[in-house]
């Protein structure tokens, strides 16, 4: 009986340990279930974040491509404007050269015309002086004739 009693106590103790262990197992299973749920939620969030990152990466790539296109277009416009400006500068330089040539020709023509007119003016002055001299001689002759006729009559 004593052995039986001890064995019964051992069995009861083992049953308590088994109940404690079972309770711990249930707690562990609950903790594991919560952790698995948490892991599942984290995986869902990770997948969502991965999709979001992929979307953002595509948007970034599109923005980079758009920026590259805009930069290229800006470069092309700038190159076109520079070519137009260079062409305009060349045209203006050509026009300036032509204008300078015309100005030099006009200056020479003006100088030639001034020399011709000065020469002609001097010639006209000389002729006028000669004409005035002739006119004075004639007036003196007329005066002489008047006084001669007055003396004769």
Polypeptide structure, described:
- Belongs to the ODF2 family.
- It is found in: Cell projection, Cilium, Flagellum; Cytoplasm, Cytoskeleton, Microtubule organizing center, Centrosome, Centriole; Cytoplasm, Cytoskeleton, Spindle pole.
- Residues 4-141 form a coiled coil.
- The structure is a single chain.
- The chain has one helix and no strands.
- With 153 residues, the protein is mainly α.
- Helix content is 99%, strand content 0%.
- The chain has one helix spanning 2-152.
- The radius of gyration is 63 Å and the shape is rod-shaped.
- 0% of the residues are buried.
What are the salient characteristics of this protein?
153 residues, mainly alpha, 0% strand, rod-shaped
Quick structural summary:
The chain is mostly helical and 153 residues long. The protein has one helix and no strands. The protein is rod-shaped and about 215 Å long.
């Amino acid at each position: 009986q004593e052995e039986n009693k001890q064995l019964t106590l051992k069995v009861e103790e083992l049953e308590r340990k088994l109940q404690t262990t079972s309770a711990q197992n249930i707690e562990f299973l609950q903790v594991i279930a919560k952790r698995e749920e948490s892991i599942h939620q984290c995986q869902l969030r990770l997948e969502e974040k991965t999709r979001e990152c992929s979307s953002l990466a595509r948007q970034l790539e599109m923005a980079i491509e758009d920026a590259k296109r805009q930069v290229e277009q800006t470069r092309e416009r700038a190159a076109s404007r520079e070519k137009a400006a260079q062409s305009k500068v060349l045209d203006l330089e050509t026009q300036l050269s032509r204008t300078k040539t015309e100005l030099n020709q006009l200056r020479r023509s003006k100088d030639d015309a001034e020399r011709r007119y000065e020469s002609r003016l001097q010639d006209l002055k000389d002729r006028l002086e000669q004409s005035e001299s002739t006119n004075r001689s004639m007036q003196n002759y007329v005066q002489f004739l008047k006084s001669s006729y007055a003396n004769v009559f």
